[in-house]
Amino acid sequence: MKKNKSVIIGSGRLGASIAAMLSDIGNDVVIIDKDDTSFRKLADTFGGYDVIGDATDLSILENEALIKEAKEVIITTDSDNVNLFIAHLCFYIIDVPNIYVRLSDVDKGKLIKNTTIQAIYPFILSIDEFMNMRGLNHHENSHS
Amino acid sequence: MKIVIANGTHEADFIIKKFKKDKHKLIVINSDKDFGNYISSSNRLPVIFGDPSKAYVLEDAEAWDADVFIALSTNDIDNYVACITAKKLFNIKRVVSVVRNPKRVDLFKTLGIDSVICSTYLLGESIKNESIIEDFIKTISIENEKIVITELIIEKQCLIVNQKIRNANIPQYLNISCIYREPEVIIANGDTIILPNDKLVIATTPEHHLEAIEFIQRKEIPHAS
Among A28, A46, B14, B152, which is least packed, fewest CB within 10 Å? Predict the structure, then answer.
């Protein structure tokens, strides 16, 4: 059976939007947040499941979110340390095939070296966007 | 030894005082400015202010190549990240984390934290050890519970009494490491003879623990007269 399940951790703006998008294109989506009021950010059309719980707890991930069946996990809580810990759990213990994590602190990226965990850095995206707007390619510039 | 103490309140203060007496090189990091100042003045040493789960704070603290890193905050996850940062990026040999949630003890160890301390977990383990085995047996586990060391008192009816260890058919899974016989400690070898009232210190694996205790304590079956 082909896995079609996505687990989203953290129902902030980013998490809730990704959940809605993946649900719209037909993925089986579970979203976890420790605060049930966060699910208000989910669109009315969201067709997945929400789980209230602490995703740093392995039993919540395994028993409530059934993460072992997931093809991907997207980790977007507002704490870098929590995100990094859950990413390590998903990589080293649960063995989720695709892991995406948001990290505000670029330094924390060093702690996912030699893994398949992929990080989204809002800081780098903002710098890139700024450089684009200003019409300057800083990658080229820094190599010259 | 170079020891980094990251966060914590009164327990940090206690550990600092203890280590300072032993003349270790201490690096103290605390994210609470007030408590940091208190530790600094009461122990007369500099305290680095900052979040120890951030690499630049450990850099400012010059934590490289320390022997031990101890994370004492009340947030388990912050302690995990601080320890992993210390280990992976600062080449610190041994990282120790305190945790509140006992379910995280084994998890953190699997993820690479060398030593995880949880008071609830320790309490549970010691109650378990006290209750399984009769009270004159003391047990400790080391190396993530892969080795169990037990102290046993030998009664005179035990079959093992008055025999050389070599001749006692000791099973493979059990090692008699040393014998406490008032007032001396004997490092056991094949020629050592076990006497009544000896205190044996034995090492086994957890799987064979109870079997080993049973073996040592086998007694003569009284003959029907």
Answer: B14
Interface test with chain A among B59, B73, B76, B84, by most A beta carbons within 10 Å: B84
Torsion (CA) A51, A55, A58, A63 in degrees, nearest 10: 10
User: Given an 8 Å threshold on Cβ–Cβ distance, is A110 in contact with B81?
Assistant: no
Contacts of B97 in chain A (CB under 8 A): none
ipTM of the complex model: 0.89
Residues of A with Cβ-Cβ distance to B88 under 8 angstroms:
110-111
* CATH classification code of A5-143: 3.40.50.720
- Mutation target for B interface from A81, A83, A110: give the one with most B CBs within 10 A: A81
Say if residues A75 and A85 touch (Cβ distance below 8 Å). Answer: no
> For B71-114, what is each residue's pLDDT tens digit?
999 999 999 999 999 999 999 999 999 999 999 999 999 999 99
Question: Is residue A56 within 8 angstroms of chain B, CB to CB?
Answer: yes
Which residue of B75, B76, B111 is in closest CB contact with A88? B111
**A114 Cβ contact partners less than 8 Å away, ≥ 6 residues apart:** none
| Mean pLDDT, rounded, for A82-108 | 97
Q: How confident is the model at residue B169 (pLDDT cuts 50, 70, 90)?
A: confident
Cβ pair B107:A93 closer than 8 A: yes
Q: Which of A118, A116, A49, A61 is nearest to A94 (CA)?
A: A61
| Coil, helix or strand at residue B159 | coil
Ordered by where they begin, the domains of chain B are 2-122 (3.40.50.720), 134-216 (3.30.70.1450)
